[in-house]
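Page 37, top half.
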Amino acid sequence: MNGYTLFLAVTDRTGRPRPAYALTTFAVETRRLDEAEERAGAALADLPPGADWTGLAPSVRREVVDRVRTVPHYAVDHTEHDRAPERSASPLADCLRSLAAGGPLAGIAAAPRTVYVTGGLPVGDAESAPLLADARAVHPDAEAHFPALARLTALLATAAAPSADNAVPDDEDLYDAFDRYALGGLA
């Protein structure tokens, strides 16, 4: 059985009218992890540190989309959580349950996997949620292990909102670089 490596970018968006969290997940077959890291590094080499997708010029976005197409991946998913607090004890756990139950990552929910978290937010009470609870290992410091893939996942997190809103043309949509992806919410 083949294993997978998942990169999670957790984004706290509690500044919105309703508390909201987002979880962006980039999955790679573990056997292709070194290749994916190398290609992600090359694809993002010209971007400034901490680049935000909406802050990049359209020509730069098109170039990055073209380069990112070479990064081996299994699937990409972005889930927004904006349920009312009384409906959810753990927004991050809800997102993880959703990923394990549906979308492009459901097919690997039972496969061996290692998880790397980026974004600086702790997983807290979500550590017992699917995709984390039975992972081989969960590393809270993706940047220290696979900086290019952590950076790509963080960039995907900033590209999700305009992609979901169809606010960027297809050739500037970073999610369009992937064969299997989903953008959704848990309202």
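Page 37, bottom half:
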Amino acid sequence: MYVTKPSPAARERIVAGAADMISRRGLNATSIREMAKHARAPLGSTYHYFPEGKQQLATEAVRYTGEWVARRLRKELEAGPVSGLRAFLGLWRKIVVDSDFRAGCPVLAVSIEEPPTDETPAALVAAADVFDVWESLLADSLCEHGAERAQAAQLATLVVAAVEGSVAMCRAKRSTQPLDRTAEQLQALVLAAIKG
């Protein structure tokens, strides 16, 4: 009998599909069955890859999103913090617009939901790690271009928080205006920090 090996592409498709579902509906409102269906994957293979169930899949979806964004951010930050900022804003603007204001950030979605128990779920820990990585990438770039370390760290936190909040506002208002307004102000702050 011939048995095929599990495909890394199939696993990644399930993780990407879960990230998309969470970005649209949140974690608590999404079942593992719905995540599998959205990824066009059999439920059995979903449990094969994620034997611990929904929390394991959600944790992987958060990490996947975090690294996907971080790769783009790293690339754009090579040209400086203003380019990185524009890319970060542009990436979220595209997601909001392309989904007709139905999708946001799965990292934020996991972060704002009430955990099912008193324990801190792995997905929430992963979300905190992702935010730390994004902030560090931005802060390091700001420092490399002349900003003081403390100011760079504060500004990086402000950028991530402002973009995440603006994405949520865009979804509620069904408009990119909050993100566009935020972009203009954040760019001015970044320019002031690096011109020092």
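Margin note: The two ends are 69 Å apart (CA to CA).
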